[in-house]
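Tutorial handout. Part one gives the primary structure; part two gives the three-dimensional structure as tokens.
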Amino acid sequence: MSMVITVSNETNLKKIKQFLGAKDENEAVEIVIERAIKEFEQNQPMKELPEDFFDDLFAEKTNLSDGESIQAIIREREESNF
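Part two.
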């Protein structure tokens, strides 16, 4: 999608382009938008877990040893958005 944006403060646009090492103003704006979205998403409150989350999680029997189970939980937490 293409869009035309008017920036009222050209000095700020030139500064941000220089700070980011962007090749042009369009790239600078794209980078700023992407960083703003990423920061916003990272600062969102933790999502509520469904009531049956742990029931479902522990309902299945596994053949993992205790160490393997712990490692699986650690990996799951690292990959999780919670």
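Part three, for discussion. Residues 25-42 form the longest helix (18 residues). The radius of gyration is 22 Å.
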